[in-house]
Amino acid sequence: MRIVIIGGVAGGMSAATRLRRLDADAEIIVLEKSGHVSYANCGLPYYVGGVIEQESSLLLQTPESLHARFRLDVRVNTEVLSIDPNKKTVTIKNLDSHETHEIDYDKLILSPGASPVVPPLSGIERALTLRTVEDVEKIAARVSANPKSAVVIGGGFIGVEIAENLIHKGIQTSLVEATDQVLMPLDSELASLVSAEMIKHGVNLYLGASVLNIGANSVELSNGDTVSAEIVILAIGVRPEISLAKAAGLTIGTRNGISVDDFNRTSNPDIYAVGDAAEKIDALDGSATLVPLANLANRHGRVVADHIAGRSIRPVQTIGTAIVKVFDLMIATTGWNEKRLKAAGRTYQSIHTHPNSHAGYYPDAKQMSLKLIFEPTTGEILGAQGVGVEGVDKRIDVIATAIRGGITAPELADLELAYAPPFSSAKDPVNMLGYVAENIVSGLTQVAQWDEIHEYMDKGYTLIDVRSVSECGKGMIPGAINIPVDEIRERQSEITNKKLLVNCQVGQRGHTAAMLLKELGFNPVNLDGGYLTWINSPAAASLLVTN
Question: How confident is the model over 9-17, as a mean pLDDT?
Answer without folding.
Answer: 93
